[in-house]
């Protein structure tokens, strides 16, 4: 058993702080991405709005579940433990247990929905047809149903029983994982050497393998289509497709890399040490943060909008300077513009009188060429 206790109060506090920070950022970034997808998607990005919105919904579902009822899950003493540490009050059973199952369902859904974006893009690019909303929802039902079935199966494994404290409670006492009055935390657990655990391992492995194999096959077919049609594509289309490729690949790799630690502990149960789970769980909550940030940074219309906002704030457009040969007038947003308008009016009247009194000056002014403003190309 690892010398580091997963029930260490400092670790639990740091874990809670890490989760709360990640969840707040996730909500802000995903809501911002919703606005960008709806309002700022260009013509070439509009077909991908379904995929982007689906990714946002999955991420927000996980974030909300994490806020209400986050869980620690780890392997110890040939047993699998699930310990709720979220903000939801301890409701009477089975409601509290259903909250834990919702969190587990949301976690698995991050994996099983990965192929959706690739299958959708395969139909759009290789087959040349955009899936209707009805067909897209039908496609989405498949991973949701598989995830729900797996969650139900796993729920039967860890369902609370009267003998749980006698069978599994000694682990918490050995770890000194108790509160101020010596009470162990609320937990759910199951032995790993039972047939149900073997079936769960096969089920989870099959879901992961199918999801990523499907994604890989679709990605290869899309790449071959791009290679064949690249010369016939306009620069705008090729740029958008390149950006979409980056977004989808990163959104696929992030859960595979970031979440693979706890998931492999869950699927394979390869070690009784919980150090791997500790490291992975600290990264676990940041996956719904990475997805919207990647989309905002990589997709040009969204990035331009955000950069434009920051540029506006930095350059303070509410202030401008009127320069003349002898003085400068600084205008702030709260200043009364009537005096400035009066000043400009006086200058115009004075210029008109000068031109009337001096025909040569009038001809000179009429011949003056006003330079056109120079348009500066954006680097974004």
From TrEMBL:
The chain crosses the membrane at residues 20-39, 51-75, 95-116, 136-159, 202-226, 247-269, 275-299. The keyword Zinc-finger does not apply. Keywords: Membrane, Transmembrane, Transmembrane helix. This is G-protein coupled receptors family 1 profile domain-containing protein.
């Amino acid at each position: 058993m690892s010398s580091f206790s997963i029930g260490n109060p400092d670790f639990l506090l740091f874990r809670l702080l890490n989760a709360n920070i990640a969840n707040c950022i996730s909500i802000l970034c995903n809501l911002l991405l919703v606005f960008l997808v709806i309002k700022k998607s260009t013509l070439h990005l509009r077909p991908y709005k379904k995929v982007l919105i689906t990714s946002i919904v999955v991420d927000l579902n996980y974030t909300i579940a994490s806020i209400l009822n986050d869980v620690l899950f780890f392997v110890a003493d040939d047993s699998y433990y699930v310990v709720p540490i979220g903000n939801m009050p301890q409701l009477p059973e089975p409601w509290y247990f259903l909250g834990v199952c919702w969190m587990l369902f949301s976690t698995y859904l991050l994996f099983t929905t990965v192929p959706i974006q690739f299958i959708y893009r395969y139909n759009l690019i290789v087959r040349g047809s955009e899936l209707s909303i009805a067909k897209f929802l039908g496609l989405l039902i498949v991973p949701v149903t598989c995830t729900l079935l797996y969650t139900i199966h796993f729920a039967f494994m860890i369902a609370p029983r009267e003998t749980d404290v006698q069978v599994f409670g000694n682990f918490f006492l050995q770890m000194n994982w108790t509160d101020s009055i010596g009470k162990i935390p609320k937990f759910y657990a199951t032995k790993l050497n039972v047939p149900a655990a073997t079936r769960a391992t096969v089920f989870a492995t099959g879901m992961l393998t199918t999801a990523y194999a499907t994604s890989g096959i679709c990605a290869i077919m899309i790449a071959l289509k791009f290679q064949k049609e690249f010369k016939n594509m306009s620069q705008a289309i090729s740029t958008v497709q390149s950006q979409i490729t980056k977004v989808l690949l990163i959104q696929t790799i992030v859960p595979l890399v970031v979440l693979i630690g706890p998931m492999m502990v869950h699927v394979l149960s390869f070690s009784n040490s919980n150090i791997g789970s500790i490291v992975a769980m600290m990264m676990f909550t940041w996956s719904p943060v990475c997805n919207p940030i990647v989309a905002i940074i990589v997709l040009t219309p969204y990035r331009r909008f955000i950069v434009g906002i920051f540029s506006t704030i930095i350059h303070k457009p509410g202030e401008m300077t009127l320069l003349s040969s002898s003085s400068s007038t600084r205008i702030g947003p709260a200043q009364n513009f009537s005096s400035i308008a009066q000043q400009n009016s006086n200058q115009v009247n004075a210029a008109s009188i000068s031109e009337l009194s001096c025909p040569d000056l009038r001809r000179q002014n009429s011949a003056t060429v006003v330079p056109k403003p120079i348009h500066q190309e954006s680097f974004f």
